[in-house]
Records
---
Amino acid sequence: MEQPLVEKHPLAPFLPTQAKLLMLGSFPPQKKRWSMDFYYPNLNNDMWRIVGMLFFDNKDYFLNESRKAFCADPIIHFLEQRGIAIFDTATSIRRLQDNASDKFLEVVEPTDIARLLRELPQCKAIVTTGQKATDTLRQQLSVAEPKVGDFSEFVFEGRAMRLYRMPSSSRAYPLALVKKAAAYRIMFQDLQML
C-alpha cells in the first residue's frame, strides 16, 4: 500500500513577542476545509466561537456577515492585544485517512517547543487543545499530563510554567460548546487574561 504524502505545516508560527500564553493544537485540517488563512480555520471547529463567547459575549463574533467563514484580521488583532501565541505540536505529518481527525495523524516532525518558548520570554503557560497535541508536547517537555480542564506545573529553563489541557474545540469532541467555553474560562481567568 502506498504511504500517504508528508504534509509540511502551511502556516508560520504566530508569536507576538509579549505573549503570555502559547496555544498549541496538533495540525491544521486539509486546505479544502479552511474558511480563512489562519489557525483553526475550519467552520466545524469551535475555537473562535469559544473565544467570542468568553471575551465578547457573542459566539459568532469572529464570523463574517454570511457566517460561512471566520475573519482572520479581527482574530489576529485580538491575539496580539491579549498576548496569545499560536502554533501546532507537529511541523509535518502524514494523514492516514482523508480527514482532519487527530487519531489519523502521524507526526513525522514534531515542533521544537523549546525554540518557540525561547522566542516568547513573557510566556508563562501553554495550552494544548487536544490529546494528540498533549501527547506530542509531553514527548519533549518533562511535565505531568493534566486532566482535561486542568493544569500541571513545570519549569522550563528556570521559568515557572503551567501546561493547561483544554477540551478539543473540534465538533468531533462530544462536549457542548458552553461546557467547552466554561473550561477555557477558568484557564483565562487563572492567567488573568479575562
Note: The two ends are 50 Å apart (CA to CA).
---
Amino acid sequence: MGRSLHNARLPGVGDDSAASPVSPKDRFLTVYGRKPVLEALADTGLEVDKVILADTVRGPGAAEIQRAAKAAGVPVQRASAHRVKVLAGNGKQDQGVLADVVAPRMRSLATALSGKRPPARVLLLDGITTPANVGMILRTATAAGLDGVIVPRRGVAALDPMVVKASAGVAFRAPVLRCGSAREAAEMLTEAGYSLYALGASASAESLTVFDVELPQRTAFVLGGETAGVGAEVGELVTEWLSIPMPGDVESLNVSAAAAVLSFELVRRAR
C-alpha cells in the first residue's frame, strides 16, 4: 500500500479556504538516522511522505533503506550530504538519511484559530529546550485529550527523533500547532479572545491554583522553560498566573510534571 502524499503545498486543514497554502513544516515530522527511518518505514500506522538519502550513502545501509521504502510504497530522493544535514537540522546524527512522516493532527496555529471550531484548551510552550520535556508534554496532552499544544519553531526544542522517542511515538499523532515564536502565539491567542494563564515562578502564595481558577471558554496555558520560566515577552500578555499547591518541601516541579497535573485537572473538570 502506497503511503505518499504531496511534497510541497497542501490545502489548509480545518479552515474555510481549501486553497490556503500550508508549509511542509506544519505537516510533517522529520526523522533522521538509519534506525529511526527504518522504524518509521516499518510502522504501518505511520504515513511516510518521502525518504531523502545523501548521495554519499552507498552500500548495504543504503540498499536496506531503499528496500524498506519500496516495500512501503515510499519514494526515495537523492540529495547532497549538505542538503540532508540542512533538512535534518542535525549535522552529527543524520547519518545521511531522513524521512518526512505525515503528522495528521499537526497544523499551523493560524489555521486552527481561523477554523469553524477553534480549540478551546491549548498549551503554549515557551522556551522549553529539553527534547525529553517536549516529548513528555506531547504524550500527556494527547492522553488528556487537549485540543492543541503550541510548539513554536523558535525557542523550543525541535520536533526531532529525541522528542518522538520521549513521547513514545505519540508525537506523530499529537495535536501540534505551529507558529514562529511564543510571543507570536500569545498575540494571536489574545487577538482571538483567549485568556492566557501561566504556570511559573511569578505565581505568588496568593495566586489562584490550577484547581480553583474559573476558566473561560477559550483558554491557553503557558508553560515556561526549564531555567528561565515564562519569558518576559509572553509574560506581559498573561491574564493571570497560576500555581500548583505543594504542601511538601519542594520548590517546584519539572515542567513536564506540571503539564501533567494541569492536563489531568482539565480532564477531571470535564468529567
Note: The longest strand covers residues 48-54.
---
Amino acid sequence: MREEDLYTEQYFGDEQQSVADAPQWEQQALPTTRLNVQYRNPYLDSMTAKVRLGDYFDTGRLPPAEVVAAVRHQSWRDLEHKGGSLDLVGDRLYVLFFRSMCSKLSYVKVGRTKKENKAQVRKRIMAHEGEAKIAQAVLFDAWISRPCVSAVVWENGVKAHLSAAAEEDIIPVEQVKAEYFRGIAFGTAVRVARMQEDGSGVVFLSP
C-alpha cells in the first residue's frame, strides 16, 4: 500500500478523499519546532498557547512557530509528569491527541511501547508526530502510563472499549484504524484507559 493511501484510509476511513486536500493555509506546513531559545517566550504559558493555537486553527490561519512549540513542549512535559522518566525500561500505554488545522482530521491515537527498548518511548511518539504532519496536526495533549511488565492486555482492552463504543454509538467516537479514533475528547479517552487498567491485571514496575 502506498503511504498516501495508508493515510487516506487512516484519516478518512472508506471515504475516497485525499489528506493532501486538507487546507494548508498560506501554502506553508505547520511549524514542527520544539521549544528552544529561539522560540521561547516567557510571556506565553502553555494554556495561553493552546487557546491561541485553537484560535489560529478556527480562523484558518497558520499559527506562529512559538505557539506550536509551546503547545508541543507542554505535551512532552505532560508525558514526563504522568509517566515519569521516559527513559525507564518497561511497557507503557499512551493516549495522544493530535489537533489538526483541519478539524475533521483531528484524532486520538492509542498505543503502547515495549519494555525491551528504553529509548522507544521518545522514538515512537516522535514518529507519530511525523505522521501527523500529513494531517497538518500537532501533538496537543498527551498521557502515558508508568512502566509496567506488559501493557498488551491493557491496550487491547482500551481499543476494544472504544471500538465497541464507536459501533454502538455510546460515546461520540469514530474508529478509522485499529488505534486511531476521531470525535472523542482526549479526557474521555484517558478515562477509558484508566477504567481498563483495573481489569487488565497490569503490574507496574518499581521506580
Note: The first strand starts at residue 92 and ends at 100.
---
Amino acid sequence: MTATGEATVEVTSEADPLGKSRSKMNTFDGRPGSGWVPVTLSPRDDDAAAVSTEASTDRMDLSFTSPQPISLVCAVNGNAADWVSYMRADRARTVELRLGDGKQEVMRRTSLRTLPEHELQERQDIEMPDPAAWWTTKASYNRVSLTLLDRYLGSQVDDPNTGEAIDTPTRLVMLAEVEVWVDKQ
C-alpha cells in the first residue's frame, strides 16, 4: 500500500458480530479466485421479501497507522477465477465508500458493474468522494470503509452442450480484490 504506513483490516457484519467472515484478507492477495466472502446469505424466491427488509450490512474497514493521500480505490467484483464461478457467486451492486481522518469523513455511494455469461470481471474504479470543504491541503485519510449495500444475485450455470444444470448459485457475495492506491509523497 505505502512505504510510510501500515494498514489493519477489520470486517464487520450484523450477521457476524465476532468478525469471523471468511477470507477477509483474501481480497488483498492479488488472486482473482479468492476474495472477501461476507457471511450474509442473499435472499432467494419466497424468502426474498423477509430477508431484504432485515438485510445486514457487511463492511470492511482499513485503518492506517498514519494518514495516507489515497487517490484511488478499485475492486474486482465477484469470483473471477473462471466464468462458472463468476456466474454462481453474487456480486456487489452498490457499495458505500467512506474515507476519514479521525475527525471528519466523506462518503460516496457507487454502483458496480456485472458482466454477462462467459465474461469475467476486471478491476473497476470505486468513485472517490470529493474532499470536504474544510480540507485546505491534499486530503489524507487514516480510515477507508467499504460497505456492501446491494448485490447482483448469482445464477444457475447450465452445461452449454446439454442444457442441464451443472452448478447452483452460492447465495454469497464475493469481492475478489480491493486495491487502495496511495499518491507518492
Note: The beta strands are 7-13, 58-68, 70-77, 91-100, 105-111, 124-126, 141-152, 157-158, 165-167, 175-182.
